[in-house]
Structure formats: C-alpha cells, structure tokens
Amino acid sequence: MLSFQTMNYKNIFFIIFLVNSLSVFSQTEIKKYSSADSIKINQLLKQSTDNFSEAPEKAISIAEQAKQMAISVNFQEGVAYALKNIGIAYYYQGKDVDALDYWKQALEIFKAIKDEVGEANILNNIGAIYFNQKDLTNALEYYLQSLKLAEKTKDKLRILTALNNIGGVYFEKPATHDKALYYFLKSLPLSEELKNNETFGTTAANLGEIYYVRNNDSLALIYFNKSAKAYNNSENSPYAYNNLGKVYNRQGNYSLAISYHNRALTIAEKLNGSLDIVQSLMGLAKTNISNKDFKKALVYLKRAETIAFKHGFSGELKNIYESFSNAYNQLNDYKNAYVYQFKYAAIKDTLYNIETDKKLGSLQFDFDIKKKQSEVDLLTKDNELQEADIKRQKFAKNAFLVGLFLILIIAINTYRNYLRKVKTNKILDKQKDEIEGLLLNILPAEVANELQTTGKAISRHYNEVSVLFSDFKGFTSFAEKLSPQELVMELNTCFVAFDNIVEKYNLEKIKTIGDAYMCAGGIPVEKEGHVLRMIKASLEMQEWIKEYNLNRISKGLNQWELRIGIHVGPIVAGVVGKKKYAYDIWGSTVNIASRMESNGEPGRVNISASTYEIIKEEYSCSYRGKIHAKNVGEIDMYFVENLV
To answer: Among residues 333, 320, 258, which one has the least CA distance to residue 288?
Structure first.
C-alpha cells in the first residue's frame, strides 16, 4: 500500500481496494483436476503470482508457460487465469494497454465457460484500469457489472470490493458525493461482518473525508475515530490520526489537534513511512499557524521540506511552500515570504504540467486501445508522388505555423491579462467572503452588519427578552469517568443539537460556559412570539436528551440529566472586547434565568412567574413555590407541563 506514496494520500484509499482486488483475485484457485497437467498449471500460476511485484517480467514468462500448457490440454479455465496473471504483471509495470488486452481475453473465456466468480474478478480489474486513466464513466460501468455478478454469486468479499470502488469513483467529483456516501455506508457493515479491519478502516476514513468536506465535523470525527480504532496503530493509522487533527484544528481545539498529529508522527517514524511523516509534520505546522505560534510552525515546516524534497513529494512541497510563505508573512519577514511564494508558484506550474502530461497520456491510452482493436492497412504511393506531396505539405505546414505562432502570441498576452484580473478579483472576493463568514459565525447578522458599516456596535436596551439557561446535573462526577476527548465529543454532540434547535426557532445563541448553554429570544431584532418559541425550543431540547439517553442506555452508558430555566425581562445586549469579539447580554433577567435553572429538576423546564403569565393560555404549568432573587425579592416558579 505504501508504494503509492507519490500520490495524493486521500486517494490512496481508493487505490488500496483496486490493488487488493487484484491480489485477491490472482490468488483464487482454479478448480483442481486429477490430471498431472492441471496440477502443474496450478503450480505455475502460483509461481507467477509470487513474482508480481518483485519480478513482473518473470511472472509473465511463467504465466505464458501455464497458458500454453492449458491450451495443449484444452483446459479453458487454466487459460483464463493465465491470461489474467499476465495482465496483472503488466499492470504492476504500469503498462495499462497490455494489461487491458489480456484481461479482456480472459473475460471472454470466463463468459464462455460461465465462471461468474472469475468474470466478476476481471470486470473489477478492468474497472481499475479505467479509474487510473480517469475515465470514470467506463470505470463505473465495469465496477457495477462486477457488483452485480458478486451479488449473484453471494461473494461477500467481492461485493465489498466493488462497493468501495464504486464509492471511490463517485468521490472523485463533489457533485456525486451523495452517491459515494451511499456506497461507502453500504460497504461499512459488510466490512464489520467480514471482520476485515483494513477495509473497514479505509471505508470509515472515506466517510470521514466526505463529512469533513461537508463541514459536518461531528460525523467526520466519529468516522475518523472508527478508522483509527480499526487500523489499531498499523501502517495506515497516521492517515486516520492526521485527519482527526485536521478536524480539531478547524474547530480551534489546537491542543487536541497537536496530540493527534504527534501520534501520527510517532507511528510514521517507527514504520519509516516518509509521506506519513511529511503529512504529520505539515499537520503540526498548520495547527501552530492557526494558533499563531509561527516560529514553532517554521520548525515543523523545515523538517517536512527536507524529507519531501528528498523523496520528490511535489504535491506536499507545494503545500509546504505555501505555509512557509504564510508564516514568514505573519512574522513580517517579507524577504523569506517572497522566496517561498516564488517556490510555491514554480512548483505549482510544475504540477500543472504533470497533470497536462497525464491527460495527454490518457489520450494516448485511448489511441493505443483503438489501434490494438483494429489494425488498418495503409495504402502506399510511388516515391516521387510521396516526395512531392511531402514538399507541399511541408510548405503549407510552415506557412500555417508562422501564422499560428503570431496568433498565439497575441492570444497568450490577452489571456494572461484576463487571468491576472480574474485571479485578483477572486482573491478579493474570497477574502471578503471569509471575513463576512467569520463575523456571522460569532455575531448576529444585524450586529455584524453594523460593525462592518460603522466600525462599531452600539449596546442596546431591550424591554422584554426571554433568556434560557441549561446545564447538566452532576457534570463534574460524570466528566471524571470520561477521557478529555470523549468528554469534548459528548458535549459537542449535545451542543450542536441545541444549536440546531435554537436556529430552528429563530432564537439567538449567546454562549456556552463549561456544560452550561445560554440562548435568548427577542434580540437583536425584537420580534413577537419569542417567549412561546423559547418554550418550544426548551421542550424539544429535553426531548432530544431523552432520545439521546435511550441510545446511551442501550450501550450501558450513564445518562445526561439536563436542567433548563427560563425568565423573561429587560436586558442590555452588545459587543464586548477589542479582540475576539463576543456578543453578550447583561441584567438581572440573566441572573434570574440562571436561578430558574439551578432550582429546576432534570428533564423539566422551570420558568418564572413573568414567563408563566405570557404562556399560561398556551401551556398548562404546575406551581412550584417561591425563590428569593437578589435585588428583586420573591419570585414564583412553575414547571411547564404540556399544551393546553
């Protein structure tokens, strides 16, 4: 698997299934016959298989012997498997055209003798060729045919391989990620059933990648953790750990991100996996850049650059140079920033040329296939006619090239100017969108707009705002039973669910403090009905916790006990601080809402008398008594029961 280290690492996991499928298929035993000839053919095929990676030419020679012997005794199954082995040996040499030619010959024999297992194997192998050539349409067609036959023969390992390969094709384009998700999810339980940790870890990692690009960090973390557990510190574990670090870095949990990248680095160094080492170092560098520790980031980048340059990891070097330029720029070291920006631009152009060469290679592949399928006899002409024709063609060609050259110079200059303008506009638009997105993520839209327009946000007084507080009873003792990572994941799952509920009822999340969650209604824009929406949201939070606990109980885990308190009254709201803006609210209403929560009971919503007066026509409530609030006096409390 690690022989593919020059490739983009995410795509290794698609290729793993292709290569594994080849290896598994090549080891499929043909039917044992009693004759000495069939036994000898089997032995030759086994010898051929053993030489695929180390001596492919020898593997071809031995498979040719097996083919000739099988032909001489009319052993069609042996002929088919010999052809398949020859194709695999060519595949290992990178000779896709030759591999495809032999596999198609083998496919015809498998069809003729009605060997559906062999046919499914070959169809999958042919799909691998087209996938490598980026001909996704043909790759998908062959993988689907392979899946159909594997399901017919109930060959679970082949079904699993085909499902993952199909998912790999759909993962190539963002527009088909939904389909990739479907096939990866379908293969996941099959991996568990077959107890194949390698394929399970790979499938889980691919699912994590899909959820990561969709910005669904909760599910991405779940599947990357599953992948890491399945790999169990094996050679693929650094990929899973680095992905976990990538997610936590995006979430701003830098200490946890660094922990996972260090874990990946330790395993990679132990196994001497050069690409894994570079990617782990890059993860550490990017996390430190995010954490504004640019000097430490430079240390990791220099280590990564040395290894990547030694092994020719061009794609990684591009990312390294870009990060170098960014870090030096932040440190106001503009000289080094320029040097690495220049290196970044140069290697980017190199990678573009490599990609262009690949496309040309794909065109050559198509041409060679057509050439092999149909050889055309060329008509010859007399030497004098040929020479005259060549002279005319040469003159016309030269005249055409001169004209084309002049046109190209004009076109290139025009196109360069156009690209320069487009690039500048894209950079400006991207920066504007990033700034606006960041503001909207931490401030209400109205407040963010005020900040962008005037450069400041004025604090406002509101006469009637509903304020909700929640926290988990016995959180401290509960937390002592979990690891830091498990605790953060649990809280994140709950708070993401609360965020969705708050957004659903058009309320405003204020902040979280430890295990406490705070939101408000009627701000920053005063809207009627916010109190009723707050009650609905609170009841839905309690209902969500109940369902979540049912799942935890089924796994033998402790339950979360949620208390919620609500009060309605006047508050002051605004933006505080010079750095790291935060939208917050103040006033006795906030304190009373907190008292409502602390005097509530798990699973219930405890509200104040002022809240009760607003909702009593809509909800039945049970009176609970009074509590004393500082500077306010005695306040009646009620539990919300149900709709009237």
So the answer is: 258
pTM: 0.48
| Lowest mean pLDDT, pick from 15-29, 218-232, 628-642 | 15-29
Mind listing the pLDDT tens digit for each residue in 580-595? 678 889 999 999 999 9
Residues 37 and 119 in one domain: yes
Supply 629's token pair. 């609030």
The CA distances from residue 181 to 171, 174, 564, 603, in Å, are: 8, 11, 37, 36
619 burial type by CB count under 10 A (0-12 exposed, 13-18 middle, 19+ buried):
buried
Residue 21's CATH number: 1.25.40.10
599, two tokens: 């005097």
Q: What is the total residue count of the chain?
A: 644
Q: Which of 210, 208, 219, 203 is nearest to 174 (CA)?
A: 210
Handedness of CA 551, 246, 496, 561 (dihedral sign): positive
Tokens of 124: 């999958």
pLDDT greater than 60 at residue 34: no
626: helix, coil or strand? strand
Residue 570: how many other CB atoms lie within 10 Å: 12
C-alpha 254: how far from chain center: 19
419-430 per-position pLDDT tens digit: 777 776 676 666
Q: How many domains does the chain divide into?
A: 3
509, β-bridge pairs = 519
Only one residue has tokens 């180390």, namely 54
**Which residue from 3, 120, 97, 121 is spatially nearest to 52, judged by alpha carbons?**
3
Q: What are phi and psi of 622, to 5 degrees?
A: -115, 130
**pLDDT tens-digit map of 366-425:** 544 554 444 323 433 445 555 666 667 777 677 777 777 778 888 787 777 777 777 766
19, 27 Cβ separation under 8 angstroms: no
Category of 333 on φ-ψ map: left (φ > 0), alpha (ψ -120 to 50) or beta: beta
Of 35-39, 441-445, 568-572, the poorest mean pLDDT is in 441-445
Which of residues 89, 108, 129 is at a domain's end? 129
CB-CB contact of 115 with 77 (8 Å): yes
* Structural domain contains residue 486: yes
Q: Using alpha carbons, select from 283, 276, 235 the residue that is nearest to residue 259.
A: 283
Q: Which residues of 55-76 are buried (b: 16+ CB within 10 A; e: fewer)?
A: ebeebbebbbbbbebbeebebe
In a domain, 161, yes or no: no
Question: How far apart are the C-alpha atoms of 152 and 295, rounded to whole Å?
Answer: 59
Residue position matching structure tokens 């490598």 = 132
CA dist., res. 106 & res. 150, Å (int): 17
Q: Burial letters for 291-300: b for 16+ Cβ neighbours within 10 Å, e otherwise?
A: bebbebbbeb
Tokens 């169990």: give the residue: 232
Residues 292-331 have pLDDT tens digits of: 999 999 999 999 999 988 888 888 888 988 999 898 989 9
Q: Which domain range does residue 572 map to?
A: 459-643
Question: Residue 507: its pLDDT value, please?
Answer: 94
